[in-house]
Amino acid sequence: MSLRIKTPKTGRAKREVFKRAPKLVETGKKTLICHGTKSSNVLNAVLTEIYHLKKDNAVKYTRKNDKIRPFESGGETSLEFYSLKTDCSIFVFGSHSKKRPDNLVIGRTYDHHIYDLVEVGVENFKSMKSFSYDKKLAPMIGSKPFFAFIGEGFDNIVELKHLKEVLLDLFRGEAVTNLNLAGLDRVYVCTAVSSNKVFFTHCALRLKRSGTIVPRMELVEVGPSMDLVVRRHRLPDESLKKESMRTAPELAKKKEKNVSRDAIQGKIGKIYVPDQKVGDTALPNKAKGVKRERREAKNKSESNKQESKKQKQDSE
Amino acid sequence: MAQQQYQIDLGNLMAFDPHHQFPSIPSSREELAKECLQQGTKLVQAVADALFSLPSTENPDGPLVQLPPPTTKLPREKPLPKPSPPTKWELFAKKKGIQKRKKDKIVYDEQTGSWKRRHGYDRVNDDKDVPIIEAKMTDEPGGDPFAKRQAEKKQRVEKHEKHRLHNLKQAAKVGALPSHVQLAATSLPITGTQAAPRKVSKDELQNVAGMAATATASGGKFDKKLPGEKPPKHEKKYRKFLPVVEGSGMGSLEKQQTEKVLNKLISKNSHEILNVEKAVNMYNVKKDKKRKSQQGRPSSTASKLKPNKKPNKKSFKKGSSNKGNPSSSNKGKSR
């Protein structure tokens, strides 16, 4: 073999490599937060607060990046490299220019290549610090959030529909199957204010007794809150989208046949008995010595009997 | 509002209200936030209604609920892992119906009468524990049985390694290397779309070698040739001189070539078909000339003649020409 095989030498390296390997079931995406050559105070605050919200599962770069221009060809190379290096598949890239002030590019990668992009401008930003609330309510790091999307814009307008999906992917946290109901403590509320503007805010959740099993929900705004103005966006390639949406065939549940469930009887099964082919079975007394005529006669009579029996059964 | 109006994705704890419209967009920010929170509370309550009605199991930390799979489909971050092809042994075992069995980690060692590990340090049936090897009749005299044993073991290990690499190679062909293995030459990151680099073909190598060989001042003329090295395919420059003599066929090619260049140059400015300034200028000049010629034909002729004087000098001395215009001729004389 011409190529040398390389394997990790230490256990730690091996574990790290396994962590990055493609998995059948993915649990969550890591987020990379970085900014371009110029940044503004608002943008710095936005990026740090997004990092705070995603602290369990994010990487923040603090240096300037002059080669990143996600929407231009050739400008995404270093971004893709960072995505590979940090194993992040969502990135939030901040840049500030005269043409596009307080610009935030949120994008996703598939196989460490850019999958889709949404560019939003940040307006009316209110940081976490400016909200006053009972600190006991403050959401825990890494808790599973609720999402509330309000407005028909998220259904009709392509940009907003796209933004909705990206925001959901960005903030949803770990994909879980088991959820602790006591750990629910945060909500993201997104409202489509106009055709290209979304009001985004982060709330804490207060569960109040209501007398029933379901507690009464109360939202307390804890920030950050901001307006996101959609600027440019790039939808994923159709073939790439198809490929990225594939699920493992091993995971697809096989249809359970002939089993049904009933509230009263419980599990009910149907059994189909195959044809027993009684006519074909060998008869016990088929003596060799019996003459042919007799043998034939005997066989005939027996078959007659069987037929009559069958008929009887049928009639019953 | 009725609950049916909301789209609820319980797997992502998401609720979406596609019908809500603000009666009038609130002017102040506080009002907008308040309105949104109100609407958000309704949506969250709708999710919670569905969530808390799921069957739950008690846990010291709180009730645990099994979430249904999310309905909003989000893209994967990496491609699906490919199943690796069966190794040669796996194929053989399947054919023969050999099944995997678990072996104990610790085995009873009869030599020492104690329990020992199956593999590794201080293992069962270790060759190192046998201090004496009995000689057989078939043994060659003078050979070291210990060295022989070690060499045999080494061979076995090498054989296994060869087989292991073969299996990995087969897996690499399908693109299903186990994730901890990397091909060193590429040291590609693990993304699932790992592929071995293409081998450079013989022709490509020859081309590059030829280029390198001719990249000297003398075009590689005086360089030593390597054994088996072929001369470069194109020794000379790619140049073609067309016949300048006009004619048909090859002869007209040169003309065509120049025409092509000219056309290209001219067509650059073809969008300004009428240069108005130039046209006006030309018209003015023409008009001027016309007027002048009509006004004073004699004077103009006189001025025209001026430059022609020199060749006429000799004849003028003789006094044959320019009789009608003495003044001008005088001027010329004084010069």
The biggest beta sheet of chain B is recorded as: 2 strands, antiparallel
In quaternary terms, these chains amount to: heterodimer
Number of strands of chain A: 13
Low-confidence stretches of chain B: 186-190, 315-335
Q: How far from one another are the termini of chain B?
A: 113 Å
Mean pLDDT of chain A: 87
Number of strands of chain B: 7
Structural class of chain A: alpha/beta
Distance between the termini of chain A: 75 Å
Separate helix tally of chain B: 9
What's the helix-strand series of chain A?
EHEHEHEEEEHHEEEEHEEH
**C-alpha Rg of chain A, in Å?**
33 Å
Low-confidence segments of chain A, ≥5 residues, pLDDT <50? Answer: 312-316
Strands across the major sheet of chain A, in which order?
Answer: 3-2-4-5-6-11-10-9-7
Outline type of chain B: flat
What does this 3D model show about the protein?
The complex is a heterodimer of chains A (316) and B (335). Chain A contains seven helices and 13 strands. The radius of gyration of chain A is 33 Å and the shape is elongated. In chain A, a hairpin with a 7-residue loop joins strand 4 and strand 5 (103-110). Chain A starts with a strand and ends with a helix. With 316 residues, chain A is of the alpha/beta class. Chain B has helices at 29-52, 88-96, 145-174, 202-213, 250-268, 276-295, 297-305, 309-318, 326-334, and strands spanning 7-9, 14-17, 56-57, 64-66, 106-109, 114-117, 182-183. Chain B is built from nine helices and seven strands, in the order E-E-H-E-E-H-E-E-H-E-H-H-H-H-H-H. The termini of chain B are far apart. By secondary structure, chain B is mainly α. Chains A and B meet through strand 1, helix 1, strand 5, strand 7 and helix 5 of A and strand 2, helix 1, strand 4, helix 3 and strand 7 of B. Strand 7 of chain A pairs parallel with strand 2 (14-17) of chain B, so a sheet runs across the interface.
